[in-house]
Write a structure and sequence with these properties.
The chain has 466 residues and is mainly α. It has two domains: 185 residues; 179 residues, no CATH class. Helices cover 76% and strands 0% of the residues. Helix 2 packs antiparallel against helix 3 and helix 8 packs across helix 11. The chain is globular. The relative contact order is 0.08. Keywords: Membrane, Transmembrane, Transmembrane helix. This is Transmembrane protein.
């Protein structure tokens, strides 16, 4: 018996796999200068970057719990959500234009996660830290450090990449400006601190809109940036839904689940599922209904992204309302009626706020073609329906939180039924188009078969000669 040796084909396959893995490892541990992203390349999320997003979510949880405890106002809740939302966008702007290869990029996000962790340690749920000047100073200083790290990574790209130098320099200046505003706010009075924090959040409009020459890019890059905007909004909205579930679970302590509380918890969980379906309904062709097609005007993604923290604030209000409703069901005190009324108002007002800005986000979506009257009609009905339900929720007042929770579930269920009508219309349109393609393909095959069966003039002459 002869020796069994691996074939040449299997050896080449193993060598190609080894070379591919070595190239991947070299991208991770090797130092590579900044470069532009490939036009067709997808955005790769590193583990360090994902870890930063987890820390963002924990900080937002502090704001939600502080609002549920009625220790901060609604304006403070909006400011807190906007602060973290804008910081999250600033840390993700780099990957919309530049590559993320190399160990230096990993080190940057590791340092960034440490800064976010430092910010979260000093976070009380309120930007003003409830009058605790030391906690406020350390918290705002940590945010300033995050912006300084962003300016460093953009400045590095400005030195190495000549094609995207204007973009990198512009974002370096924006991050340095935000860092300066937070450093000054950390050592200012309450009113000045709040005003400077709002000014730092307002830099978001410059960051997302950019300079006019930033819009002179190819359609592939523009469409890819739109997908990046969508993924950011989705990650933060999903985080807000997770906070809603967390608020529900925290409202009932261990061992305190009784008979009627089980049905209320299931109803609250059904509310979360319905909100999730309403926010992320899946179309047949376009899996993101709130897809911003910024191929002509850049103001669409800017307005779209500015709606995200406001919609999140509505979800946070619903979370605080659910939390208090479930807590009050376990208590019997004189303040129970007042707290039930406060929780019911929070639940319904949060629903109204969420629906208004979700309708705005849906209106920013690419409109259906005018020729497709069915899709256009359903698109308009969905927007009008959300606004009508928001108006009804805003006008309703309940003394009992449980009745408000039931009515909230019922209203969202009606909107989900509207989405199902949209799904049916989308499915019908998709099947009609597939059938038309099949008929067209079948017709072209018939023509091809007839052409092949038909004898050519050369063959006819040859047959006559024979």
């Amino acid at each position: 018996m002869g020796d069994r040796r691996p074939s040449t084909q299997s050896t080449s396959t193993i060598d190609s796999r080894d070379s591919t893995s070595l190239q991947a490892i070299s991208k991770v541990i090797g130092w590579t200068p900044p470069r532009l992203r490939d036009p067709e390349g997808s955005r790769v999320v590193t583990k360090a970057e994902a870890f930063c997003w987890i820390l963002y979510g924990s900080s937002n949880a502090g704001a939600a719990m502080a609002y549920a405890a009625n220790s901060i106002t609604f304006s403070s809740l909006i400011l807190s959500l906007s602060t973290y939302w804008v910081l999250y966008l600033a840390s993700a702007d780099y990957t919309t234009r530049f590559s993320t290869d190399g160990v230096d990029h990993r080190l940057f996000f590791m340092a960034f996660s440490v800064a976010i962790f430092f910010v979260d340690l000093n976070w009380t749920g309120d930007i003003l830290a409830n009058g605790d000047e030391k906690a406020r100073r350390m918290h705002l200083t940590g945010i300033a450090i995050c912006y300084l790290l962003n300016s460093v990574v953009f400045g590095r790209a400005a030195v190495w990449v000549t094609e995207g130098r204007n973009f990198a320099v512009f974002h370096t200046i924006l991050n340095l400006s935000a860092a300066a505003l937070y450093l000054v706010a950390a050592h200012s009075s309450d009113w000045t601190c709040k005003a400077l924090c709002w000014c730092a959040c307002a830099l978001f409009f410059l960051r997302s809109y950019g300079l006019p020459n930033f819009q002179k890019i190819d359609k592939v890059t523009n469409r890819r940036n739109a997908k990046d905007y969508i993924s950011r909004s989705q990650s933060m909205m999903i985080a807000s839904l997770a906070l809603l579930i967390k608020s529900i679970s925290k409202s009932v302590g261990p061992g305190r689940l009784e008979g009627h509380m089980g049905s209320l918890l299931l109803m609250s969980l059904l509310l979360v599922f319905l909100v999730k379906t309403l926010m992320f309904d899946n179309h047949v062709e376009d899996t993101n209904w709130h897809a911003v097609r910024c191929v002509t005007t850049p103001w669409r993604p800017t307005i779209f992204l500015s709606c995200v923290p406001l919609a999140m604030a509505g979800v946070m209000m619903m979370a605080s309302g659910c939390n208090k409703i479930l807590q009050m069901e376990l208590q019997t005190s004189d303040e129970n009626a007042d707290m039930q009324h406060w929780a019911a108002d929070n639940l319904m007002q949060g629903l109204a706020l969420m629906l208004v800005f979700m309708a705005a986000m849906r209106a920013l979506h690419k409109r259906p073609p005018v020729s497709d009257k069915g899709a256009m009609t359903i698109w308009k009905v969905q927007i009008v329906g959300q606004l009508l339900v928001a108006a009804v929720a805003h006008r309703m007042h309940y003394e009992n939180g449980v009745s408000a929770l039931k009515r909230c579930v019922f209203l969202i269920f009606l909107l989900v039924l509207l989405n199902l009508a949209d799904e049916a219309e989308e499915m019908l349109h998709y099947r009609t188009r597939l059938a038309a393609k099949a008929v067209k393909l079948h017709g072209s095959n018939d023509v091809l078969e007839k052409a092949m069966e038909k004898p050519s003039p050369g063959n006819e002459i040859r047959n006559r000669e024979v």
